[in-house]
Amino acid sequence: MPLGFAVAAVFLVFARPSRETLAWSLLLVVPGLWLRAYAAGYVKKNAELTRTGPYAYTRNPLYLGSMGIAAGFAVAAGRWWLGLLLVVMFLAIYVPVILSEEAYLRSVFASFDEYARRVPRLLPRLTRAQFAGAQPGLGRFSPERYRHHREYNALMGAAAIYAALALRMLFLR
């Protein structure tokens, strides 16, 4: 978290957004927010190995969504080197987290290795992975799970960053 706050401060200080960069950034931020929201409505953290919804395409749809959001904000900032800084931050944060989570899931869920063989770690499959014994109707999106995971915070955070970038654009040129 401290690294994230430091990068956010550098990002806001050095960003040079324009109407165009803010508009183009929406092409990455909106799908990233949608993917995070969609994934949050499926996952049952520590209770089951989620293999439905977006988890049938990528093992880490929440992180993939976050990366889309960050890429969008890199576009919004209008500075290529801020994008590079975000890539470095994501590698520093997400690579160890993903590997740690996979070790945990492997130790708790016997079917994790089969899941990992069928579903890529980050970049999604083009088709949904099928699993033996999967029952139709299970694993539907749950608005209650979305709210439980407080995924609406990502939307509020993105709105706050856009507000800060808009203020920066208007008053600090």
Secondary structure topology:
Blueprint: H1 2-14, H2 19-40, H3 61-77, H4 80-108, H5 112-118, H6 143-148, H7 152-171
Helix pairs in contact: 1-4, 2-3, 2-7, 3-4, 3-7
- Summarize the main sheet: none
Q: Separation of termini?
A: 29 Å
Give the proportion of residues in helices. Answer: 55-70%
Please tell me how large the radius of gyration is. Answer: 18 Å
Q: Could you please say which CATH topology applies here?
A: Four Helix Bundle (Hemerythrin (Met), subunit A)
CATH architecture verdict: Up-down Bundle
Number of strands: 0
Total helices: the number is: 7
User: Given the C-alpha coordinates, what overall shape results?
Assistant: elongated
CATH C-level label: Mainly Alpha
Overall structural domain count:
1
H/E element string? HHHHHHH
Structural class label: mainly alpha
Question: Mean pLDDT, rounded to whole units?
Answer: 90
Task: Provide a compact summary of the structure.
The protein has 173 residues and is mostly helical.
Architecture overview:
- With 173 residues, the chain is mainly α.
- It has one domain (2-10, 18-126, 139-171): Four Helix Bundle (Hemerythrin (Met), subunit A) (Up-down Bundle), CATH 1.20.120.
- It is built from 7 helices and no strands.
- The chain has helices at residues 2-14, 19-40, 61-77, 80-108, 112-118, 143-148, 152-171.
- α2 runs antiparallel to α7.
- The longest helix is centred in the middle third of the chain and has 29 residues, at 80-108.
- The radius of gyration is 18 Å and the shape is elongated.
